[in-house]
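Q: Got a minute? One more chain.
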Amino acid sequence: MKEFLTRLLLFFTGVILLLITGKFFILGIRSIGTALALFYFLAFLIFLVFSAILIAPPFADWIARKFAHSLYFPDIGRVEERLYSVPRSLALKGEFEEAVKEYQKLLENDPEDRTARMEMADILAGKLKRKREAIQELEFLYQTAEEAKEKLFFLNRTVDLLIDEGEIKRAEELLKTALSEWKGREEETFLKERLGRVGEKAG
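A: Always. Here it is, folded:
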């Protein structure tokens, strides 16, 4: 609500400046041929720039949110969602709770959206310190990963967070289960070394 009021205030301030800008333009037109004309047109340009700075961001955001699914561009809203522009912009502004909510909306529509789940897990673990929730998301990503490199990446991220949370035994169990799946593959050596390091922490 506070953010909305701030945007609204900036917008109306910009509108007022725009009205003043128009006034200077009219005075400039009327004063053509006199020394005052230059002053009025210079003031017009200055106020025009300030008006654009204040009005453009909230107006653009409003358009994106309200009219993305217009008759002329019916796919814009869907493309925007698929590009994750809303949650990413919220995260960039430090609004991490709101960003997580937006990612959850994407996952409600598409539970298999791996990008949304991964980015949400990063925010949960790194920014909000809600590591247990992040672990759940990463475990899902690990279990459903198809490519070896991706699977190994999510396994390591999950193990790291489990260790951070003091769940060493659970990290060991996860690595042991993974070892049985990766037996005879080149990643087996790496997993054994990782398991050994985790075992040292447990000891």
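A: The mean pLDDT is 79.
Q: Perfect, thanks.
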